Amino acid sequence: MAGVPTSVVAAGGLVAGYGVARWTKKRPLGGVALAAAGVVAAREWQRKAGNVTAVALSGAYVAAFAGSHPLAKKIGAWPSVFAVAGGVALASWVAADRRS
After folding, report:
1. Which of 1, 26, 49, 57 sits in a 20 to 30 Å window from 40, CA-based?
2. How many Cβ atoms sit within 10 Å of the Cβ of residue 70?
């Protein structure tokens, strides 16, 4: 994963998690994709920016996943997923990626 910005990994994990769950109709598979990307991103956040930043960004990643559900009721599923993915990508870039 060297060279791939954590902002891309985190946003991709949110989008892929939802996409896999939707297209396979198996929510646990979407959860696997979401979790795998989250673990990769968290390790890189820790390596690039330290423990405190990694914990904060991991919390933002989980909050984005959880927050996408009520947001989807207002704006639709895909727009919600893209909105929270964009938010996490921005936070990740600001806190970890732009330093590299």
Report:
1. 26
2. 9
pLDDT tens figures, 34-82: 999 999 999 999 999 999 999 999 999 999 999 999 999 999 999 999 9
Burial class (CB in 10 A: 0-12, 13-18, 19+), 36: middle
Given its phi and psi angles, is residue 26 left (phi above 0), alpha (psi -120 to 50 degrees) or beta? beta
Residues 59 and 17 sit within 8 Å (Cβ to Cβ): no
Find the largest Cα–Cα distance for the chain.
39
Can you tell me which residue has the tokens 């559900």? 69
At 84 the three-state DSSP class reads: helix
Q: At what angle do helices 51-75 and 27-49 cross, to 10 degrees?
A: 140
